[in-house]
Amino acid sequence: MDDARDGTTGSPRTTDPLVRSPRTAETLVRYLLTASLVRTASGGAAVGLFTLTVRTGGSGGAALGGLLAALLTAPYVVGPWLAGVLDRARDGRRVLAVSFVVFGGALAAAALLLGRVPFLVVAGLVTVAGLCGPLVTGGLSSRLAAVDGWDERGRRRAEGWDSATYGIGNTFGPAAVGAVGAVLGARTGVLCLGAAAAAAAFTVLTLPAGTPPAKGQAGPLRVRQTFRIIVTVGQLRRVMLAMALTALVAGGITVVATTLGRQLTGSPEAGAALAAVYGLGYLAGSVVAGIVPLRGEPERTSTVLVVVSAAAVACCAVAPGYAVAVVTFAATGAASALLFTATLAVRAVYAPPEARAQVYVSMGALKMAVSSAGTALAGSLMSLGPRTLLGAGCAVTLFALAGVLCDRIRSGRKNSVTASQRNSSARNNSRTLPSEIS
């Protein structure tokens, strides 16, 4: 199965004729509205819960707020199992709508009850919300990949805009919580996030239903089988490696930016601004990918963008002043967004239709887990200095590149040997066939 779909034109699905439909633009708008609403709710939830807990929890509020934030992301590990429900559903929109309602409802209930009931009840509600997280991210993206009607350029553009919704959520979610909280209180800010998720449950039902599983078709693959696909399909395996290692770096980049900005200027606000610049760069890169779609075979594009990411992180490490650091961190954010967009394209092209949601969610869950580890690692190693950590991040990214290239060479040799063996077997059969017939 390894590299079975390698080639200069990508997967067979990239050459399938897709009829351009006048309704696809409208479909994309509805999708982006849905994704922006629910991902804004998801992106601001941790900040909102942390802020509310600090204000209501007294001296131990910060620790309890951190615990609630962790409970939002920890359930991502069960994402691959939840994705099986989406792959099996005759109408995946309903599964997503239910998950969005549960996410928003559990988040709102946690905000209303925090400080008024035992903390374990609130923690349980937040965990329920976290269980819906994988469907908010990879699960929803898999629906976009299932929509027919785009040609290849249109599909790449849609994936770029999908990537932008992650940037919108992570940028405007916390900002919305802060703005509403400043006027109406932190509790109201979190309730607004819950309402946004509930609104997304209605808009997701307006998307095309897609093709339901065929009658008699076996259910979705087991999680073990899904991971086997990711490991044995060369393009998915290599992109998973690159995505995991670059996510480790990206997870810690905002922590490092905050410290470096403070060192360069002596101002904590400048450090926070530098971290925000990275987020704005990510959003800008996603928008560019939506306007000017990525071209070429998606796995090769991903490899090139790993190189760009390594160079951008290296420039951050050697930035001599704050102004240069602003430019380099913005460029790093943009490179990260473009790389993520390319990985979406790889998943869309090489994930089997019967396991599309499981592949999306499994790889997304891995990215989330590694990114969280990167954040924790950067915080624990900050004593080494931000420039040292950025240099290490560049080295990790280059290691990812080396791993991808070595795997591609190995797979190419393996495929060449296999093709040679097949040709040899065919020649032997052609020699022995006449005597066997006689």
The rounded Rg comes to: 23 Å
Task: Sketch the major β-sheet.
Answer: none
- Number of E-type strands: 0
Beta content = under 5%
Task: Characterize this entry briefly.
With 438 residues, the chain is an all-alpha fold.
Topology:
Layout: H1 12-15, H2 24-56, H3 61-73, H4 79-88, H5 92-113, H6 119-131, H7 133-145, H8 152-184, H9 186-204, H10 223-232, H11 234-265, H12 268-291, H13 298-317, H14 322-350, H15 356-380, H16 386-437
Helix pairs in contact: 2-3, 2-5, 2-7, 2-8, 2-9, 3-6, 4-7, 4-15, 5-6, 5-7, 5-9, 7-8, 7-15, 8-9, 8-12, 8-14, 10-11, 11-12, 11-13, 11-14, 11-15, 11-16, 12-14, 13-14, 13-16
Describe the structure.
The protein has 438 residues and is mainly α. It contains 16 helices and no strands. It has helices spanning 12-15, 24-56, 61-73, 79-88, 92-113, 119-131, 133-145, 152-184, 186-204, 223-232, 234-265, 268-291, 298-317, 322-350, 356-380, 386-437. Helix 4 crosses helix 7 (133-145), helix 11 runs antiparallel to helix 14 and helix 13 (298-317) packs antiparallel against helix 14 (322-350). The longest helix has 52 residues, at 386-437. The two termini are 37 Å apart.
